[in-house]
Amino acid sequence: MWQVLREELHPKGLEIVSVALDARGAAVARPWIEKAMARHPSLIDAPHQLGRLGVANVPTGIWVDETGVIVRPPEPAHPRRPAYKDQVVPADASAVERERVEMVKALHVEPDRYVAALRDWVERGTKSRYALAPDEVVRRSRPRGLDEATADAHFALGRALHAEGDPAGAIAHFKAAHRLHPTNWTYRRDAWAMAGPEHASIYGTTWLDEVKREGVERYYPPLEL
Amino acid sequence: MIFRSARIPAAELERATGWALKPEGLCHDDRCVPFPHDAGGDLSLADVASALGMPLVKEEAAGLWALGPGGGGKALDDPDTAVLPDLELPDVNGDPFRFSSLRGQKVLVVAWASW
Question: What is the pTM of this model?
Answer without folding.
Answer: 0.94
